[in-house]
Amino acid sequence: MTVSDGGPYVNGGPQTTESSILPLDDGDIHVCQDGPRDAPALLLIHGSASSTRSWDPMVPLLTGSHRVIRIDLLGHGRSAKPADRSYALPEQARRASVVLGRLGVEHAIVAGHSSGGAVATALAEQRHDLVTALALINTGPSLDAFIAPRSAAIGPSQWPPTDEQLRQFASTGFSRAGFQIPQELLDEVRAMTYHTLTTTMQATSHYMEQQALPDRLTALGKPLLVIFGEDDRRWRSSSASDYRVVPGAKVELLPGLGHSPLLEDPPRTATSLLAFTAIHAVRGWTE
After folding, report:
1. In 3D, which of 125, 101, 107, 94 has the Cα closest to residue 41?
2. Domain assignment present for 61
3. In terms of pTM, does the model score above 0.85?
4. Distance CA 205, CA 97 (A)
5. What is the CATH number of the domain that holds 179?
6. How many separate domains does the chain show?
7. Per-residue pLDDT reduced to its tens digit, 176-213
8. What digits encode the pLDDT tens for the residues 262-284?
9. Quick one: average pLDDT of 222-236?
10. Residue 146 domain-assigned?
């Protein structure tokens, strides 16, 4: 199924998002595409308890030079939420690979926010030929860097949660208390099942427990950009320097921003990302 949604206005005209549901063997995956189909491909992967909508403010800033592809990982957004499928990060990465194949993409730069950066890393591990470069946005390098205080748990008996419970749950995702979280993001977390919320978060921890991301990335030898909001309240921002062990890695700290710079200051985040993609983008579609 494919539909076109009216998107934000860019240069005086509306931007159209092509929204599709692609059936995979273990569940339907929701895909959004923006920008010229003959431009270099840029895959954007959201973090835990999020969706393609987390990238909405960034997309209009990226489509001038990229075919921007977003997916809802299984268990999130408008993708399927089965209770009997694996949510391990390598499986999520495999699904992303299948989606890109269905879209005819042969090469792509992959950017991930938070745990989406770990999925991007897993994708590069599986498909060295597909991923040309990686950009990680506020993706902690290891579990040792996690600093968020334990928030009041939302138990299965409280599911689905209220807006206030969700705001409390997500509060450390931003540099300041009271940041106005878009209602559509709250709604999409609520649309998750309790099983998919907890299982997907556990899957990220398991992946990082097995091996720290800088070690994984060093072995890959891919160009790497790390963007980190300096006031991150979930991951110690100084831990971004751990990625410097990756040969050629570029690490940028953004003062005044927290865990979600793509929502807190899209232009500043896009500027850093576009400077990187301008160097490493290649033709990413099938002739």
Report:
1. 107
2. yes
3. yes
4. 22
5. 3.40.50.1820
6. 1
7. 777 889 999 999 999 999 999 999 999 999 999 999 99
8. 999 999 999 999 999 999 987 54
9. 97
10. yes
Residue 285 belongs to a domain:
no
C-alpha 81/C-alpha 158 separation (Å) is 19
- For residue 39, pLDDT over 50 is answered with yes
Which two structure tokens, joined as six digits, stand for 207?
Answer: 């992946």
pLDDT for the residue numbered 152: 56
Asked if 254 and 46 count as a contact pair (C-beta separation under 8 A), the reply is no
For residue 286, being part of any structural domain is answered with no
> How many CA within 13 A on the CB side of residue 61?
18
Q: Which domain holds residue 186?
A: 2-280
User: Across all residues in the chain, what is the average pLDDT?
Assistant: 92
SS in 3 state form for the chain? CEEEEEEEEECCEEEEEEEEEEEECCEEEEEEEECCCCCCEEEEECCCCCCHHHHCCCHHHHCCCCEEEEECCCCCCCCCCCCCCCCCHHHHHHHHHHHHHHCCECCEEEEEECHHHHHHHHHHHHCCCCEEEEEEECCCCCHHHECCCCCCCCCHHHCCCCHHHHHHHHHHHCCCCCCCCCHHHHHHHHCCCHHHHHHHHHHHHHHHHHCCHHHHHHHHCCCEEEEEECCCCCECHHHHHHHHHCCCCEEEEECCCCCCHHHHCHHHHHHHHHHHHHHHCCCCECC
Residue count (the chain): 287
pLDDT tens track for 151-171: 556 788 889 999 999 998 888
